[in-house]
């Protein structure tokens, strides 16, 4: 199979060449910044909150304490699947509310796992 060679002006080739010249710390820092930039501004931890989280051993309560999720969203994300299905089927919850709650919780978890310093 024949594939076209990457030219030096190709963004992919340029990106790979830059990575090869950087230390793993620089690459990691760049990738962390790229990940952070993809989290919606309204769902980002403040610097103060990030600092506080980085010294905690237990982060199980962070979704409740960070202020990014409402009490209803916390209840949704801590419910079992059967309960959610029943509430969705009865109209007590909308699919938008459930999806939003889990996306917000994922943004919190993502910051705890990938962005803590």
Q: What would you note in describing this structure?
A:
Helices cover 65% and strands 0% of the residues. With 117 residues, it is mainly alpha-helical. The protein has a domain at 40-115. The radius of gyration is 20 Å and the shape is elongated.
Summarize this structure as a short list of keywords or feature phrases.
mainly alpha, disordered N terminus
Number of helices: 7
Helix and strand succession?
A: HHHHHHH
| Strand fraction | under 5%
Biggest sheet character: none
Structural class: mainly alpha
Please count the beta strands (DSSP E, at least 2 residues each).
0
Q: In terms of per-residue confidence, which ranges show pLDDT below 50 for 5 or more consecutive residues?
A: 1-10
Q: Give the oligomeric state.
A: single chain
> N-to-C terminal Cα separation, in Å?
45 Å
Rg estimate, integer Å? 20 Å
Q: Give the overall shape, derived from the CA principal axes.
A: elongated
Helix amount: 55-70%
Look at the structure and give the mean pLDDT. Answer: 81
Task: Provide a short characterization of the protein structure.
Helix content is 65%, strand content 0%. It has 117 residues and is mainly α.
Task: Provide the fold topology.
Blueprint: H1 11-21, H2 24-37, H3 47-55, H4 62-65, H5 71-77, H6 81-90, H7 95-115
């Amino acid at each position: 199979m024949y594939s076209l060679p990457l030219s030096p002006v190709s963004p992919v080739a340029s990106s790979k060449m830059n990575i090869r010249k950087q230390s793993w710390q620089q690459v990691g820092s760049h990738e962390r910044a790229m990940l952070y930039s993809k989290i919606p501004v309204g769902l980002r931890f403040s610097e103060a909150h990030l600092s506080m989280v980085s010294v905690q051993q237990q982060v199980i309560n962070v979704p409740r304490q960070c202020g990014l999720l409402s009490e209803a969203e916390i209840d949704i994300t801590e419910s079992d699947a059967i309960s959610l299905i029943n509430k969705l089927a009865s109209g007590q919850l909308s699919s938008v509310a459930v999806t939003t709650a889990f996306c917000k919780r994922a943004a919190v978890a993502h910051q705890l796992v990938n962005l803590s310093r």
